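Example 3.
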Amino acid sequence: MSSKMFPPLVIPFFIPHHGCPQRCTFCNQTAITGRAEGNIPDSLEIAATVESYLATKGGKRGEAQVAFFGGSFSGLPDALQEKLLGAVAPFLADGRVAGIRISTRPDYLDPDRISFLKERGVTLVELGVQSLDDAVLARCGRGHTSTDSLKAISLLQAGGVRVGVQLMVGLPGEKTGRLLAGARVLAGMQPELARLYPALVLKGSRLAGDYLTDRYQPLGLTKAVALCARLREIFTTQGVRVVRIGLQETDGLTGEILAGPHHPAFGELVLSWNLHRRLRKLLAGSGNEPRRLVIASGDQSVLRGPSNYFLEALRRKGLLERVNVIFDSGQPRGEAKLVGVAENCQK
Ligand code: SF4
């Protein structure tokens, strides 16, 4: 089977806060990544880690990509960018690594910087857009505007570098209408991928101070899931892959969260929300004849939700009466089929 059929093997390196000129109110990368702030990998560590990943996981995944996350890579001193990218160069040269991903601020890119990165193997840049509402960006102390984000996306695309966008829900001052409008603009620009994160109150962040003094109230879990579900629909409808929803669980992450809509399976809750919204429509209009609802085997937990919550909700509404739910490995993931009714349900 071709390795291209598998998701890429991403070999991550974290550079918490490095390259950032300031600290955004919601941010505590040390808490998220579990890496101490002063700790930046050196060339030997990079080479050894890449070798180790390739040896232990290389054959089981798609093409290998090295990623520098957790800070603003293009804000690092030039010499440090050269050194980090140079440590990956031998693997690019022998073809064992296909490309490099970085994350950075939207205002730290211009055509020269993009050429610099591209010439050294960077193939995908993830932009911390977070919001396209300038009032929200200002309240979060981001230090850049929505115009910077839109310009960075256009420059990267014009320079032949793939783009990822990171967007948050529940930031201070956020208005739902403006959040959704911003997502539509971003999706319309056709980035390659998107990541969605609910704003959490992390210990040690400035948002923690605002929360403790009643100047900020995080979203509840249900509202955060519902908003992320709407954003996911906006991106996927435009053909943009949403590759992550919610923070990756790391050792000790839960202990770093003071408040906010954290759930270890947040992304799956969002998938369940979207699937059930569509299933409710599909089942409600399907009559009373006996029917079979065919769901992909891989979507069993998405259909059920935590403690069967979502499945029971369908039952309580009477939508599963005379409906036999079948899990079928031949059914594509993310789709559901009601046999006898000529309609497909895309997740
Ligand atoms: S730019 Fe990103 S990494 Fe830097 S402080 Fe802001 S959120 Fe954190």
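The first helix runs from residue 29 to 33. The longest strand covers residues 122-130.
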